[in-house]
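Table 4 source record.
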Amino acid sequence: MSTEQFPQANLSNWRQHPYSRWSFTHVDQLVPVARIAAAPSSPLPQGPAFDLAMLHHTWNGARVSAQETLAATHTDGLLVLKHGAVVASHLAPYQQLHTPHIVFSVSKSITACLAGILVEQGLLDPNAPVTHYVPEAENSAYGDCTLRHVLDMTVSIRFIEDYLDPLGDVARYRVAMGWNPPGAIADDRGLHAFIATLPKAEHPHGERFHYVSPNSDMLGWIIERASGSTLVELLTRHIWQPMGMADDASITVDRLGAPRTAGGISTSLTDLARFGEMMRGVGSYLGRRIVPEAWVEDILHKGDSQAWAKGDLAALFPQGRYRSKWYIADPSSNVLCAIGIHGQWIYVDYEAGMVAVKQSSQPIPADDEADHRTLSFFRALAAAIT
């Protein structure tokens, strides 16, 4: 897909359909980014091919094909691994396996794994107050919460995550991070200054899950402060190069260089699959320890189900939990997910030995129907390749 097909793609419309089909793989032409360098090793192994054309699943009482679901959810790329080997893939005509694609809030899950590495190194304490690392947050909602509250989205904070309100909290947030032109909202403070002014809500920290993306930008700020290194240096040193990622990745940065750890990472489909396979390996990839085993086990077996049930997204996973920026879909099904708006997914089914990653350009940022349809597809896929 050439830029000539979308001459109007710019900072004001890049997340809108149909421009997003181009812009989600060309974020670096629209927003400043910092590069995460790859260190390629061997390609992903190939397993026995599974024909997606043969797969059907039930959706809204009807039998639908995998191809219908992939089209309906505006899939740009899908890659499926079984015990670490590629068994199925799907690419839109304009997409390639090694093309970096923005993964939005899957960035949160990647960043939190980096936090786990720093915890093992003794540089971070999940129970420490946020202000131990970022004293500038003292007069905000973060002034009396802990890093654990930030990791688990249980900060008591007044912020409404409405992606479509042109003058709401998210619109102001996007101007601060450099994702929107100022337009009716002028804010040149930058991302960190913005999140350090967000006010506390009335309920106590830890009481309920409240999905607020600035929490994850605060996590990135804490990581940089605790380590004395940039987020990009840490991702390169601890994850991208040790894993032998095939392709350079990037993360968007604001006008002052602050990384958008809540949603700014772009990475290729193959490297997203590698990351999912590392999580299936409980923190190890190709025999090399990447993320501490204890950190991944904590994600899999902890998380406050009561706080989740009181929260914003309980309808997505009625029996679910949320821990360190990862979703535990159902404790009995042994499924772990990372999810980003516009249809970005890492889906790990431990029992089936399957990792499925999906990059999309869904027109609606938070589309409940598309999410549930995608989950139905993933469950059918796991059952079919077992």
